[in-house]
Specification:
The chain is mainly α. It has two helices and no strands. Helix 1 crosses helix 2.
Length: about 80
């Protein structure tokens, strides 16, 4: 609710790229018997932040568009 416009999109992109990727690399992968951080292979490691960052950006766009509509409807 505090962020708007470009700040919201940037925060969503960074949050989406960093936190879910770290959890997948260092918690989920070892639990599944896979190597941590995609085996530290740079090309394999790049996939996580790109995909998760895109997901975060999409979520930020949705919040920017539809969150504003919802906020105006409740005022």
């Amino acid at each position: 609710a505090r962020l708007h416009g470009a700040a919201l999109l940037a925060a969503a992109l960074v949050f989406g790229a960093v936190f879910p990727t770290l959890v997948a690399w260092f918690i989920v992968a070892p639990l599944k018997g896979q190597p941590m951080a995609a085996g530290f292979v740079p090309m394999a490691m790049a996939i996580g932040p790109i995909v998760n960052g895109a997901w975060g950006l999409g979520t930020g766009i949705g919040l920017a568009l539809f969150g504003r509509l919802r906020a105006h409807a409740h005022s």
